[in-house]
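This week, think about what follows.
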Amino acid sequence: MTLYNEFRILTVDVEDWFQVENFKGVIEEKDWNFCELRIVENIKKLLDLFERNSVKCTFFVLGWIAKKVPSLIKEIYSKKHEIASHGFWHNLIYYQTPKEFEEDIIKSKKILEDIIGEKIIGYRAPSFSITDWAIDILVKNEFIYDSSYCPFFLHKRYGKLSVNTQPNEPFQFLNGLIEIPISTLRYFGINFPWGGGAYFRLIPYPIFKLGIKRIQKKNNIYVFYFHPWEIDFSQPRIKNLKLNYKIRHYGGLKLAYNKLQKLLKDFSFISIKEFLNNNF
């Protein structure tokens, strides 16, 4: 690995509103085909925003979405953004067997490669559920990097990797797979998630912005993630959700697009692929 200057990486997890983990107990996979598909409109809105701000980013695409609307993936790719894999079914890795996991990533990878005509080299686990045994399977299937490690250990869904490294710093496993961690802000000896999602929507933007600057005083790289449904205040509301799930999913939706606009005006961003091309 070579030394790198200050970089900020922008990533988008391409899944629709009904595919999130918080809805698993209410909406089953067999019901997905009957849910309102809102991903196309939301992605187009993001693509316009990225173009206005001269941003290129990495889209981690769910295989189910790619199969459903391949033209949308072609459009993202035509705008010179990177296409990477988010699996096919959005299932947490540690609830799968190694065989089930491998079948899932093979299926998703082939769909994406057939659509864009280029090798898929990146992967992100659903809900950052990366697990030790999955690393070798990713390398076996010719992935170059993973971007799933989030060293915030108070969130029960995030995966656990047996690594000994500084938070926020990219590193390589012994098998050669490169890991691009989700950014965290260390405060009072705890790593707090500071890479996007509900944290970005719920934390006042001036505070979030200061957090990014604080991270980059110690780390040259900052990794941000976002979901298309997070700019969609008009999406269907699901009843009978746990209160914390409601807050995680619906909290801050109304202001999210404006906050994202501010973020892209205040900071420059690149894709993971561009970062790797310059530094590995």
The CA atoms of residues 50 and 56 lie 7 Å apart. The chain has a mean pLDDT of 92. The beta strands are 7-14, 58-61, 82-85, 122-123, 145-146, 171-172, 178-179, 184-187, 190-193, 221-226. The chain is about 40% helix and 15% strand.
